[in-house]
DNA sequence: TAAATTAGCTTACAGCTGTACGCTTAACGC
DNA sequence: GCGTTAAGCGTACAGCTGTAAGCTAATTTA
């Protein structure tokens, strides 16, 4: 890669990082201005356009990066779970750890999920869909559920996990522990309930 | 009430209504400006301050009104359920009906739940808490669950309902039907699962 | 090596924002 | 009836926004 392309990439990263760094419980992506981001990245406002068409394009890039981080997390969790132990417990713990180390990645996903930009919502939905379908596939195989039931179960579980994630973002570690325990309990409810429904439908 | 107070109340309502009317899938409360709201309500921007200290105060008023609408809905649903039939099914249908007739009330609640203003999040949390504790109390009584389990169950159910509500906001009627059916299925999972966990803990 | 490309800069502008200040006018309390 | 109160208005201003236009200087290409 040439010197020029390298420098361009570096500045682009500076912009993305600047945007991530400005996110917090009090500051959503949509409240950031192009000028603020450029300022934080130490470039002139108008230079922003050399990298992104507008703030939306930056935001979608961030959502995609966030999604990538999520998928990497899933793999990590699955690996750990293979060593034995409660899959639910291990997954929840992994989720909480990643949430703790990348809070702003989650902020943009959790906030824009119910945001006002349709492309954003679609992008987040796409990322969450990865979660759901992988989990549904997993349950379908391991527990021999029928597809429809597996899908509903997976969706419910992912919903509960993400909702807990949103709540956890503003919590201290001790509060998070309680939350995690309750989440595990809720996930077990769903799992048990799905089992019962499954037996009913298949009449055995 | 005097002529003066009456007129003031009327203008205040015009402001609240103007703000509600400007909400949509593409427009969140936090993206509204004081001037826009004043314009829509046909008053001068500076007159806004005769009624609210700032936009935040307006927003909190709206959240409170939304919460009120929710609680009225709950009562309506409970009355219907008393006439017999599946409590879950009836509650979901009621919820969807109210969602359909007051979409913007839900928009502000659903969006500000994960918003950037702490007072807003707290206000929404308070409203949702009403839901959870009433439901927990109901289950504790009807199904003789222990408090901790009842609480976790209620929280899970409310989470699932609100999440489905957010998704339903941008859907056509036919899509909503599918969503509602899946939601019912998920709620039954949670209910069944809680039952099983309950029996386990109490060893009978 | 000369020409072309391009990341980043400075300057500039129109449009929006919240809100301070002071006025008018109609209802209120005495 | 008369002084007081207050809802609503118009004007004004500073500060922010996105972005258009054109320049500079360094890299790339031919």
From TrEMBL, chains A, B:
For the HTH tetR-type domain, which residue ranges apply?
A: 10-70
Spell out the PROSITE patterns in the cross-references.
Answer: HTH_TETR_1, HTH_TETR_2
Q: Which UniProt keywords apply?
A: DNA-binding, Transcription, Transcription regulation
* Alphabetized InterPro entries for the sequence: DesT_TetR_C, DNA-bd_HTH_TetR-type_CS, Homeodomain-like_sf, HTH_TetR, HTH_transcr_repressor_FabR
Which Pfam families does the UniProt entry name for this protein? TetR_C_46, TetR_N
Recorded hits in PANTHER family, A to Z, give: HTH-TYPE TRANSCRIPTIONAL REPRESSOR FABR (PTHR47752)
Q: Which NCBIfam families match?
A: PRK11202.1
Name this polypeptide is given? HTH-type transcriptional repressor FabR
């Amino acid at each position: 890669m040439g010197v020029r392309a390298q420098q361009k990439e570096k500045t682009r990263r500076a912009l993305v990082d600047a945007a991530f760094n400005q996110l917090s419980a009090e500051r959503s992506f949509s409240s950031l201005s192009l000028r603020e981001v450029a300022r934080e990245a130490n470039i002139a406002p108008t230079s922003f356009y050399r990298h992104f068409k507008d703030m939306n394009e930056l935001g979608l890039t961030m959502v995609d990066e966030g999604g990538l981080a999520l998928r990497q997390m899933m793999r990590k969790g699955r690996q750990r779970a293979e060593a034995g132990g409660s899959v639910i417990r291990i997954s929840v713990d992994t989720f909480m750890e990643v949430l703790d180390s990348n809070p702003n990645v989650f902020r943009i996903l959790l906030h824009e999920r119910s945001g006002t930009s349709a492309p954003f919502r679609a992008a987040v939905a796409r990322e969450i869909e990865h979660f759901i379908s992988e989990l549904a596939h997993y349950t379908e195989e391991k527990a021999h559920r029928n597809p429809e039931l597996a899908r509903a179960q997976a969706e419910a579980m992912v919903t509960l996990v993400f909702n807990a994630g949103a709540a956890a973002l503003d919590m201290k570690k001790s509060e998070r522990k309680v939350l995690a325990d309750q989440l595990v309990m809720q996930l077990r409810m769903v799992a048990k309930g799905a089992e019962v429904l499954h037996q009913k439908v298949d009449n055995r």
